[in-house]
From TrEMBL, chains A, B:
<dbReference type="GO" id="GO:0008609">
    <property type="term" value="F:alkylglycerone-phosphate synthase activity"/>
</dbReference>
<dbReference type="InterPro" id="IPR016169">
    <property type="entry name" value="FAD-bd_PCMH_sub2"/>
</dbReference>
<dbReference type="InterPro" id="IPR006094">
    <property type="entry name" value="Oxid_FAD_bind_N"/>
</dbReference>
<dbReference type="Pfam" id="PF01565">
    <property type="entry name" value="FAD_binding_4"/>
</dbReference>
<dbReference type="InterPro" id="IPR004113">
    <property type="entry name" value="FAD-bd_oxidored_4_C"/>
</dbReference>
<dbReference type="InterPro" id="IPR016164">
    <property type="entry name" value="FAD-linked_Oxase-like_C"/>
</dbReference>
<dbReference type="InterPro" id="IPR025650">
    <property type="entry name" value="Alkyl-DHAP_Synthase"/>
</dbReference>
<feature type="active site" description="Proton donor/acceptor">
    <location>
        <position position="452"/>
    </location>
</feature>
<dbReference type="InterPro" id="IPR016167">
    <property type="entry name" value="FAD-bd_PCMH_sub1"/>
</dbReference>
<dbReference type="InterPro" id="IPR016166">
    <property type="entry name" value="FAD-bd_PCMH"/>
</dbReference>
<keyword id="KW-0560">Oxidoreductase</keyword>
<dbReference type="GO" id="GO:0008610">
    <property type="term" value="P:lipid biosynthetic process"/>
</dbReference>
<feature type="region of interest" description="Disordered">
    <location>
        <begin position="526"/>
        <end position="547"/>
    </location>
</feature>
<keyword id="KW-0274">FAD</keyword>
<feature type="site" description="Important for enzyme activity">
    <location>
        <position position="300"/>
    </location>
</feature>
<feature type="binding site">
    <location>
        <begin position="249"/>
        <end position="255"/>
    </location>
    <ligand>
        <name>FAD</name>
    </ligand>
</feature>
<feature type="domain" description="FAD-binding PCMH-type">
    <location>
        <begin position="85"/>
        <end position="265"/>
    </location>
</feature>
């Protein structure tokens, strides 16, 4: 069963938080106390009467409305834990076909509802949260459209229902010998339609591409009917409509079918963890490996604070002590940085990539490639989708953890990391609170890298105080991102939390073009209003007003 | 000096048309006679008085207006050779800065001009041709904005003036040890801004990507000011504005600066030509090599008719006879198909790619990899940008040659090739005229391939009759493309010639979205009207009307 107020399923094996890991957190942030948690029953009692009419496709029961009211952002967690939801959708429809989606859109237009398309509910940026408003809100969940509808093996195109979550995407493909290779951290719960709508990126994007490179076509249900995007390999026939659907976050229509480029399951795959003596060398190694186009499937680099924080949080003191002795003997000590990479492909490709990368690791003083690396890599692989469960572990002890991410060109990577980390470390200074933060590069490109920063802080004495701390932190790091010219999101999307910052990268004319598309597809602003693009008044609709 | 009525420059070494090649054409199509050609002087005399005011940036001289009136489509050639241009721009402005572009746009809005952005003038689909209309037409040529403005070596981002032609892109980068790697057939004349505006693809797209993958950001000058697109490696922050500029064909604004992802000049590069016993094997080899992600930089496959036609047109009878004997001895004879590929990268990458591809070639019965292949490959490389000169050679003898291209998924490739070739072969049956056509796959993707078909036919007794023949052929093959679900252009863009067919791949809702963007950026429809999107009347503007 999926948790109603936390990440994941109750039957998933979860990573433990050992006593020594907890000691590390306590020593870093100070002692803390957990906050009280509301029960599902208590929350259900708050759910007001639905403003939606009775309809065969619409479930208006309180529990279903609670379970679809929030995503996985930290404010969502505070709402779910405190029971203070603010508002709920008036009902949840779970269509099983594109026809039913169209029927629900038509109904919404006729009856003047707001519609929120809903995939896996894993948004960490407030994508799917209903807002207080006069109109009834219908959440349109795609959770019953989870099938592999077609697999064309010659063209390697698979057609999926939009609500197919990661494990079902891969299981259905694996039974035919194929893989999509899209592994976001949210893999266990997030859906293929959600990946498209929010321009998701998976851990092995270096081989398989981001969802933009996988999304070959599909269907978008709009108020004017179905926009069918054919799967053409490449085209110079005008602007690419797939790129309008990608990242549209439910504002232009509801994705009812997703066609993706798949690959035969690879002959070989391995993940390897190596350690570099310092950040500069780890960083240069990543840049070089990418710009040399070495066929890696994944490449990520933790800075020094993340490296030792991860070792502390792993909680296996003996093993970690052994590892550190081993590294010290090989000249990698204080300030060491962990780099994890994947090699995927046929035998020759794997051998060639290993040869190139080994040479490059040595040239930057990295160690671990042959002995330790593959072993630690296998541990990483085993636990790769379990990190989101750590939040619950810490929460129970009164600590909050959140992440943010951006991407910038290589020449701005280091100053941007410093800017973001400094903004977080100082954001709660006025309260005398310590913020512990660390960073890794999670996705690399020839021109630059994504930056993924994790931050831990002590909860306040109340849920409100905790939320106030988060608001300060979120504002500080978002401003830092924008000031360094980063995108407000490399892989989590815009939602409501990032919408105020979007204008800084899109510019006034870019924003005006996006607003114009939104008005074109949804003239009544009925689809997820306020997500992606902030609501603006008539007066603000001029180009300048948009900023 | 650039030719005013033909392809290229007079100081470029051109491929000869040998007597035996000409004999092949005569035997295939029948004898023909060349048509008379107008002189530049005669055409200049026809140029009417300009409707533009005097302005320091605008050249209204007849010769400049003639030289910017047409592209390189076959109808353009007929216009240039016959001297029957129909109409000319009223003047040509050659701005040197983005500020001057904005000044010219502002002037055009104030004085009610039509503006046609102009790059290298190499369009083969009527992108830059002025139309008969009441308003004065200003062609805005970017030919003076040809500099490498910045090269960030750490992030491998180069900034260019939009009018920089291929050889100047590569020469300026080469002097710093870099390459863009974008080599369309039009490389000698086409420009980096034109590549972006028309979604161009270069021969080595398998390594370097299409221009979509290279275009990192830049500036679009619009009537509302400058739209600045920052160079962010990847983002999930809403729809990608680069993808709105890419393929916009001058309809949304004028590209004034192009930032591209560049690569260090490769350690090694080689091109190899191999021969397969039949099309099925050549085709399967290409699909396999691509889907296995072998690191090739280029891969193209000629069908049997193209293979022998190329051998005949090469004109070296002795060498070809020797080659055919050699192939016959190795089991490759009648029906053989030529496959050309490139391997580019560092030493290990080249070695690994060679190993994988060699194994695959053998498994499909291909020959030539080790002995002959690299030699013929070097010949191909030497002449790779000279093919466009062949049109003039044939024209002089009364034969017309044109090409078309599309792309479809692998499962539709063969039926689409057959459909296109049949449509051409039968298009002039009513006149008893033979059409000789042949095809290659020019760009490959995991999901499918581009299809590039060349067709030769005999000119009519007059220029009008020749144009009428071309119209029949163009219509027939465009319908075949559309009926097989191909894109109306994989690499040549839409312009005016392909605009009527665009709706078949974009669909009514996609077309409506594009029209909506065009009205957003250019409410007076002043920028290149009729290009990309056909002009529609007020009544047709509803969604259904767009089709």
């Amino acid at each position: 069963m999926r948790y109603w107020n936390s990440w994941g399923h109750d039957n998933t094996e979860k990573p433990p938080l050992t006593e020594s890991a907890l000691t590390f957190v306590r020593e870093t942030l100070g002692d803390s106390q957990p906050l009280p948690e509301a029960t599902l029953e208590e929350v259900c009692k708050q759910v007001p009467e639905s403003r939606l009419p009775d309809h065969a496709l619409i479930d208006k029961s309180a529990e279903v409305r609670v379970r679809h009211a929030r995503g996985q952002s930290l404010p969502d967690w505070i709402a779910m834990k405190s029971g203070d939801f603010g508002c709920f959708p008036d009902g949840v429809a779970c269509p099983e076909t594109p026809e039913q989606i169209r029927e629900l859109l038509e109904l919404s237009r006729e009856k003047d509802f707001i519609v929120i398309p809903y995939g896996g509910g894993t948004s960490v940026a407030g994508h799917i949260n209903p807002q207080q408003q006069d109109k009834a809100v219908l959440t349109l969940s795609l959770e019953r459209m989870t099938r592999l509808l077609d697999l064309n093996e010659e063209s390697q195109i698979a057609t999926f229902g939009p609500g197919t979550p990661g494990p079902m995407v891969e299981a259905q493909l694996a039974s035919r010998g194929y893989t999509l290779g899209h592994y976001p951290q949210s893999f266990e719960l997030s859906t293929i339609g959600g990946w498209v709508a929010s321009r998701s990126s998976g851990q092995q994007s270096l081989r398989y591409g981001r969802i933009e490179q996988m999304f070959a076509g599909g269907r978008l249900e709009t108020f004017d009917g179905t926009m069918d995007i054919p799967t053409i390999p490449a085209s110079s026939a005008g602007p690419d409509l797939r790129e309008v659907v990608l990242g549209s976050e439910g504002r232009f229509g509801v994705i009812s079918e997703v066609k993706v480029r798949v690959t035969r399951a690879p002959e070989k795959e391995e993940f390897i963890v190596v350690y570099f003596p310092n950040w500069e060398k780890a960083y240069q190694f990543c840049r070089e490996a990418t710009q040399q186009k070495i066929q890696l499937s994944m490449l990520r680099a933790s800075n020094a604070v993340e490296t030792w924080s991860q070792l502390k949080l792993a909680g296996h003191d003996d093993l970690v002590a052994w590892l550190e002795r081993y590294l010290r003997l090989r000249g990698v000590d204080e300030g060491k940085c962990m780099v994890t990479f994947g090699i995927t492909g046929n035998k020759i490709q794997v051998m060639a990539a290993r040869g190139q990368v080994h040479k490059l690791i040595r040239s930057y003083g990295g160690v671990g490639m042959t002995g330790l690396g593959p072993k630690v890599g296998r541990l990483w692989e085993k636990g790769r989708f379990r990190y989101p469960y750590l939040r619950e572990n810490l929460w129970k002890h009164g600590y909050a953890v959140d992440t943010l991410e951006t991407s910038v060109n290589w020449d701005k990577t280091n100053t941007t990391i410093d800017g973001i980390e400094n903004s977080l470390r100082t954001a709660l200074e006025d309260e005398g609170e310590v913020v512990h933060c660390f960073t890794h590069l999670s996705h690399v490109y020839t021109q630059g890298s994504s930056i993924y920063t994790t931050y831990l802080f002590r909860m306040g004495k109340t849920h409100e105080e905790t939320l106030a701390r988060w608001n300060k932190l979120k504002k500080a790091c978002s401003i830092a991102v924008v000031e360094h010219g980063g995108t407000i999101s490399h892989q989590h999307g815009v939602g409501r939390d990032h919408a105020p910052y979007l204008k800084h990268e899109k510019g006034p004319l870019g924003m005006a073009a996006l607003y114009s598309l939104s008005e074109h597809f949804d003239p009544d602003q009925r689809l997820n209003p306020g997500g992606l693009l902030e609501e603006i008044t008539e007066n603000e609709k001029s180009t300048e007003g948009a900023l």
